[in-house]
Design goal:
437 residues; nine-stranded parallel β-sheet; Urease, subunit C, domain 1; nine-stranded mixed β-sheet
């Protein structure tokens, strides 16, 4: 077949069990045809023999706050194969939700990655948010914190019930930070300040995380809404979600790279302070098993970018959160290439098709005709050592500095446009808003 457009020839498809070599014909930013290697031709040919390819990564959980912005997230992501960033949008206290969404669109306008928004709901918006967004398709989900360090952000379980009732009517997923904030305040006060990551873990125990997950799932079942449990950190919390799903609740589970690669015994101090906290090596192992078993639907970065005045080794002087958007794919790709606990198809599911399905992104997350031509080209023979000063987010450190990783990202295409080639940004703009189907 001969046609105009871009032809990616001969790379192995990571979304297929046998990883066959294939040709992908891209016309006007869309995958038009996929066929066996050597069967297609086009006006612009890129020979990828020896490479692997997968759909663009969708980082379903990022924060354009602290030192990071909508645009800087969209700039850093493509270096790690992220072609779509789903960003948490935080309305100001007296800002309308429509104004907040417009502010997000304006801020991300120069992004290289495509972008979408999760809208945070705080107590004063519980009764009104549904009316404000009922006719909009640019709210992929709403986010409710049941625990937060700032007063006025956290919702109660009763308020979550109201949010879920409206979300069920609108067909919008509800992302939940599932920790009992009021209990944790008292528990941490009695326990005293944590001096290390193990003590910080004990101050926010996994038993409470699991109990909160169970409560959230019960409300989802009661209201008929879809709950998306963000950043599940422990085996107990994962088991609670699995049990609720078996009982009929509509619940999706997200975990993050830091819960799969870091634990509370590492000497990172406040640089790895995050909530829920890092857990034990046993939790890491059991979460990995949950990924392989299909009990975890999405792995995201939960990326937060900080300056040195916001994070330090002293826990009491550090804000919550860690950077990781650019290493989301490389960390997991290394596991695949080492044939450790993850295979290539599972990688595609948890980084591409899983988040696309979770948030209704109809043209994202898959290599198939009619889909957006978001393609990551991988060199399986490459290797690298992580150095924080070679990353492209705004953070002054990385908790993964010094990690030796197999595999490299040769090229990243977003809707057929080449964004990154051999570690260099080729196209720094052109990102578009993604909407719910």
């Amino acid at each position: 077949m001969t046609d105009a457009g871009l032809l990616l020839r001969g790379a192995r498809r990571m979304d297929a069990a046998t990883m066959p070599k294939a040709d992908i014909l891209i016309v006007d930013g869309t995958i038009q045809v996929i066929d066996s290697a050597g069967s297609l031709s086009a006006s612009h040919l890129v020979d990828l023999d020896g490479a692997w390819m997968m759909p663009g990564v969708i980082d379903a959980h990022t924060h354009p706050i602290h030192r990071e912005t909508f645009a800087t997230l969209g700039h850093a992501g493509p270096f790690g194969g992220v072609t779509t960033t789903l960003q948490h949008l935080y309305p100001e206290p007296r800002e309308t939700l429509a104004s907040a969404l417009e502010r997000g669109r304006h801020g991300a306008a120069e992004s290289a990655a495509d972008f979408g928004f999760h809208l945070r709901i705080t107590p004063e918006r519980v009764e009104t948010w549904g009316r404000e967004v009922s006719d909009r398709d640019d709210v992929l989900a709403v986010k409710v914190f049941l625990a937060h360090g700032r007063p006025g952000i956290s919702c109660s379980l009763g308020e979550l019930y109201e949010v879920m009732t409206a979300a069920s009517r609108l067909g919008v997923p509800v992302i939940v930070h599932a920790e009992f904030g009021d209990v944790l305040i008292r528990h941490e006060r009695l326990a005293g300040p944590a001096s290390d990551l193990r003590a910080f873990d004990a101050s926010r125990p996994s038993e409470l995380e699991a109990a909160c997950v169970s409560a959230v799932c019960a409300l989802a079942h009661l209201t008929g809404s879809k709950a998306y449990i963000a950043h599940v950190s422990s085996a107990l919390a994962l088991q609670a979600a699995i049990a609720a799903r078996a009982a009929g609740a509509s619940v999706l589970v997200e975990t993050c790279t830091h819960y799969l690669f870091l634990d509370h015994d590492l000497p990172l101090g406040g640089l790895a302070k995050v909530t829920p906290p890092l857990r034990s090596k046993n939790d890491v192992a059991l979460l990995r098993e949950g990924v392989v078993a299909g009990d975890v639907d999405v792995i995201a970065s939960d990326h937060c970018g900080y300056g040195p005045d916001e994070k330090s080794y002293r826990l009491e002087e550090s804000d919550n959160g860690v950077p990781g958007i650019e290493l989301l794919l490389p960390l997991l790709l290394d596991v695949v290439l080492r044939e450790d606990w993850l295979n290539h198809q599972q990688l595609v599911r948890i980084l591409s098709s899983g988040p696309a399905d979770a948030f209704g992104l109809a043209t994202k997350g898959r290599l198939a005709p009619g889909m957006d031509a978001d393609v990551v080209v991988i060199d399986p023979g490459a290797s690298r050592t992580v150095h924080y000063d070679q990353l492209h987010d705004v953070s002054f450190y990385s908790p993964y500095s010094g990690y030796d990783l197999r595999g490299g990202i040769s090229a990243v295409y977003r809707r057929g446009d080449l964004l990154v080639r051999d570690g260099e940004l080729v196209n720094g703009g052109g990102g578009r808003l993604v909407t719910r189907r």
